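PROTEIN DESIGN WORKSHEET
SECTION A - STRUCTURE
LENGTH: 161
C-ALPHA CELLS:
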C-alpha cells in the first residue's frame, strides 16, 4: 500500500473516532474515488502485474486529489455567485482537508525561476516550444507543479521572448 493511501486510511479512522463528520465525508469521497482508480488501473494494466504494479501510484493519487480540489473550487465559486455561502463554506472546508494531502506547489518567484531554468534547458525560443518547456518542468518538479498556473506562466514568458 502506498504511503499516501495509508495516510488517507489512517486519517479516516482517526476522524471517525473523533466524530468529525466533514472530514469523514471528504475522506470517504477520496477513498471511493481511489478505489475506482484502482479498478481502472487493474482493468487497463493487467499486463503490468508481472512488473509489480499492484496499487495506484502516489503520483496518480495526487493527480486525483488535485482534480477533486479543482472541482470543489469551481463549485465554491458557483455557490458564491448563486448567493449560497453555506454551501460555499462547506466546499472551502473540503478543499482545506484535501489540500493537506497535496505536496507544496511551486508559486511566485520559485515558479518563475523553475520556468526560466526549463526554458534555458529546453532551448525554447518561441511559443511553439511550450510543450518542450512543460515537459522539462514536469520532469524536474513532477507533483510540485500546479499545471494550470505553470502553463499560464510559461505561455506568458514565451510570448515575451
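SECTION B - SEQUENCE
RESIDUE ASSIGNMENT:
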Amino acid at each position: 500500500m502506498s504511503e499516501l493511501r495509508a495516510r488517507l486510511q489512517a486519517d479516516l479512522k482517526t476522524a471517525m473516532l473523533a466524530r468529525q463528520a466533514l472530514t469523514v465525508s471528504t475522506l470517504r469521497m477520496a477513498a471511493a474515488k481511489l478505489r475506482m482508480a484502482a479498478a481502472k488501473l487493474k482493468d487497463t494494466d493487467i499486463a503490468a502485474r508481472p512488473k509489480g504494479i499492484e496499487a495506484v501510484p502516489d503520483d496518480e493519487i495526487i493527480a486525483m486529489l488535485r482534480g477533486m480540489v479543482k472541482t470543489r473550487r469551481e463549485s465554491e465559486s458557483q455557490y458564491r455567485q448563486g448567493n449560497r455561502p453555506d454551501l460555499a463554506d462547506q466546499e472551502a472546508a473540503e478543499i482545506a482537508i484535501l489540500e493537506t494531502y497535496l505536496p507544496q506547489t511551486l508559486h511566485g518567484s520559485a515558479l518563475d525561476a523553475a520556468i526560466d531554468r526549463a526554458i534555458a534547458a529546453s532551448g525554447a525560443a518561441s511559443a511553439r516550444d511550450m510543450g518542450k518547456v512543460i515537459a522539462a518542468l514536469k520532469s524536474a518538479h513532477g507533483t510540485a507543479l500546479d499545471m494550470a498556473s505553470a502553463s499560464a506562466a510559461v505561455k506568458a514568458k514565451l510570448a515575451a521572448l
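SECTION C - NOTES
The chain has a mean pLDDT of 86.
The CA atoms of residues 107 and 113 lie 10 Å apart.
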